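Quick one, tokens below. Sequence please?
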């Protein structure tokens, strides 16, 4: 039978800072067992690179670092660290693994409000979305009406589709009536998820790959699959490594 000390050293995961019999500590920041000397060396190397990068960026964009970084107390700039802006053509020539991380793609979707609610859950991305708070659909820009996206769930000649259509027409009437005495942000409270919404979504290819894997699965919303499957095909045509 193993004693407690032997059993402890054979555990695959150890508590942070636990000392082992082989004279190492488990460090949560680096995710492995390290001797005190190795830990100090790792901190020093990472610290030099962090200071070097911040020093270069602070010189270029001092406003962004004002009050949070003092270049006078930073270490010298490491000769191996270079900060260089390259054009899109150069980005396209990067190796596949680098291209996946550094090639960003913006996509404009025209979908219903329910789909945008799911898209904005991908917090790594940046978004620009049509705002019902400021858009007044009674204006000439929107032809004085609210636009809705037909749902995939109902056949047009079915009773369910007629119920949906009636509900949309009623919602539009109530919205336009409210606009006579209320602001767009107050009137929008009667608008349903079927409202047409434009949204621009921006992220790198690596994140798009993750999003596509989630949003094209059989368990995804059919309305989401409707846009994501053809988008995935187009993205793969342009970037075969995906």
């Amino acid at each position: 039978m193993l004693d407690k000390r032997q059993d402890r050293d054979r555990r695959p995961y150890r508590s942070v800072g636990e000392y082992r019999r082989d004279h190492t500590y488990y460090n949560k920041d680096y995710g492995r067992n390290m001797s005190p000397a190795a830990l100090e060396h790792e901190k020093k190397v990472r610290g030099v690179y962090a200071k070097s990068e911040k020093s270069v960026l602070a010189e270029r964009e001092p406003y962004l670092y004002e009050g949070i970084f003092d270049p006078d107390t930073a270490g010298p700039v490491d000769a191996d660290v270079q900060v260089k802006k390259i054009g899109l053509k150069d980005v396209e020539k990067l190796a596949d693994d680098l291209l996946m991380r550094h090639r960003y793609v913006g996509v404009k979707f025209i979908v219903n409000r329910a789909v945008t609610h799911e898209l904005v859950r991908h917090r790594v991305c940046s978004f620009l979305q049509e705002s019902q708070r400021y858009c007044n659909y009674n204006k000439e820009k929107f032809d004085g009406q609210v636009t809705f996206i037909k749902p995939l769930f109902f056949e047009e000649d079915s009773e369910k589709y007629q119920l949906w259509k009636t509900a949309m027409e009623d919602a539009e009437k109530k919205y336009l009536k409210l606009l006579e005495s209320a602001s767009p942000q107050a009137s929008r409270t009667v608008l349903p998820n079927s409202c047409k919404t434009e949204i621009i979504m921006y992220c790198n290819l690596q994140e798009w790959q993750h999003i596509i894997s989630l949003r094209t699965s059989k368990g995804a919303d059919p309305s989401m699959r409707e846009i994501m499957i053809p988008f995935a095909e187009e993205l793969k045509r342009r970037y075969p490594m995906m």
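Residues 36-60 form the longest helix (25 residues). The mean pLDDT is 82.
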